[in-house]
Amino acid sequence: MEFKSLTNIETSFRQIRLFALVFICLCALVTGFAVWNSYSFAEKQRQKIYVLDNGKSLMLALSQDMAQNRPIEAKSHVKRFHELFFTLSPDKDAIESNVKRSLFLADKSAYNYYKDLSEKGYYNRVISGNINQTVEIDSMKCDFDQYPYRVDTYARQLIVRESSLTVRSLVTTCRLLNATRSDNNPHGFIMEAFTITENKDLQTIKR
Fold first, then answer.
1. C-alpha distances in Å from residue 167, one per residue of 29, 83, 106, 119, 160
2. Which of 26, 98, 108, 160 is most deeply buried (CB count within 10 A of its CB)?
3. What is the Cα–Cα distance from 105 to 75, expressed in whole angstroms?
4. Integer Cα distance of 42 and 46 in angstroms
């Protein structure tokens, strides 16, 4: 009888140990699931950005991997440079303002072109001749396989005079370097080795 009691006690201890082990495993599973779920929730929240709209309401925006946007930002950077650098009006202050803003986006190679045109009196002729010049980007070819990134730009210049409209082809090339973002350089690129490889008349339309 005494041995049977000992056996029952030993069996009870085994059952208690088994229940305790099962309980510990369940607690570990619940804790692991809770931690994983919390991490997933936090990661999803990190993908959301709340933007204050004129101090009135919060707008939800989704953040994306910055690397995914670099090719788009590169094209936008180069396009913005061309628009500022080659868009001219018969106003000295407007020309200087546009060129100054464009030079924040490039290195000294662009400034050298500006200086050369200025010394040749190109901007003075634009002002005295009441000429308006705009640029239209046709296409861009970007090579992101190696750094610095090479960009070829194909565009047209529209030169509007009182008596005619001249269309010129414009082909440029440059390399893009990563740079610090700022108010003057929101895309975080600097154009180097800027070169005009083609700039010739395509047609002239009498007005």
1. 72, 16, 26, 24, 9
2. 98
3. 12
4. 6
| pLDDT at residue 62 greater than cutoff 50 | no
| The token pair that represents 72 in the structure block | 């788009």
Over residues 139-164, the pLDDT tens digits come to 999 998 889 999 999 999 999 998 89
DSSP conformation class of 163: S
Q: Cα(70)–Cα(177) distance, rounded to whole angstroms? A: 12
Residues 6+ apart with CB under 8 A from 202: 156, 167, 168, 169
- CA–CA separation, 102 vs 83, rounded Å? 8
> How crowded is the C-beta side of 103, counted as CA atoms within 13 Å?
14
For the sheet with 189-206, list strands across it: 132-143, 149-160, 164-178, 189-206
pLDDT > 90 fraction of the chain, expressed in percent and rounded: 58
Radius of gyration of the chain (CA): 33
First to last CA, the chain: 123
Mean pLDDT of the chain: 84
pLDDT of 138 strictly over 60: yes
> What is the token pair recorded at 97?
């303002």
pLDDT of residue 3: 46
Count Cβ neighbours within 10 Å for each residue of 91-120 and write b for 16 or more, e otherwise: eeeebeebbeebbebbbeebeebbeeeeee
Return the structure tokens found at 39. 């991490």
